Amino acid sequence: MRCPKIAVYPGTFDPITYGHLDLIKRALKLFDQVIVAIGENPAKKPLFTLEERREMIWESLRELRNGDEKRVTVESFSGLLVDFAAQKGACAIVRGLRAVSDFEYEFQMALMNRRLNRRIDTVFLMPGFRWIYISSTIVKEAAQFGGDVSGLVPPVVERKLREKYALNQDY
Ligand code: COA
User: Which residues have C-beta within 8 Å of that of residue 57, sequence separation ≥ 6?
Assistant: First the structure.
């Protein structure tokens, strides 16, 4: 019997966007199981807590609704990504490439991860064309100043962004 092909899709997901969901759907076509792994990027100070990010991902995954959601799990990790992936029995790390500007950083990270664990490969997937310009930061910035982000993030994220920024304005 062949082992299930497991991939880890890591990110900060602060918050998850339709671009991330597009990538999860693509990864599900290639792998038996996808672990969405919320990690720590030391360079980032997230707006949402880990628990909030996890909840938003779960809620957003319900949109898959075709049974595929059963092949996705959401977890968080600290420490090295490759250690987490190895512990989960994953054979691959999935990352999205939106534009040439992503390449240098992703290339560096993939090579470092390979050096740290040669058994795990990084697989790059391209999101749909309509998502290539979005990032969590740009969505947050638009939402912060009252911009309409519907259609870029799932409804639960839109709601949470509105709540978060309304709350922050009270201070
Ligand atoms: N659609 C929309 N946006 C996308 C996207 C897609 N398909 N793919 C990437 N992005 C955006 C993200 O929203 C994010 O935007 P932001 O910078 O505005 O927040 C950005 O592109 C990429 O960030 P993200 O995918 O969240 O990953 P990251 O660069 O924050 O990396 C880890 C996070 C957790 C994967 C990485 O830091 C890590 O592995 N940490 C653990 C330590 C480690 O092992 N490091 C590597 C070896 S030293």
Answer: 13, 16, 36, 38, 74
Q: Which residues are catalytic?
A: 20, 44, 98, 136
Phi and psi angles of residue 149, each rounded to the nearest 5 degrees, phi first: -110, 10
Atom of ligand 1 nearest to the CA of 14: 19
Q: What is the 3-state secondary structure (H, E, C) of 52-63?
A: HHHHHHHHHHHH
Which pTM does this prediction carry? 0.93
The string of pLDDT tens digits covering residues 115-156 is 999 999 999 999 999 999 999 999 999 999 999 999 999 999
- From residue 43, alpha-carbon distances to 21, 39, 40 in Å are 23, 12, 9
Check: CB of residue 149 under 8 Å from CB of residue 158.
Answer: yes
CA 60 and chain centroid, separation: 12
| Cβ neighbours around 25 below 10 Å, total | 18
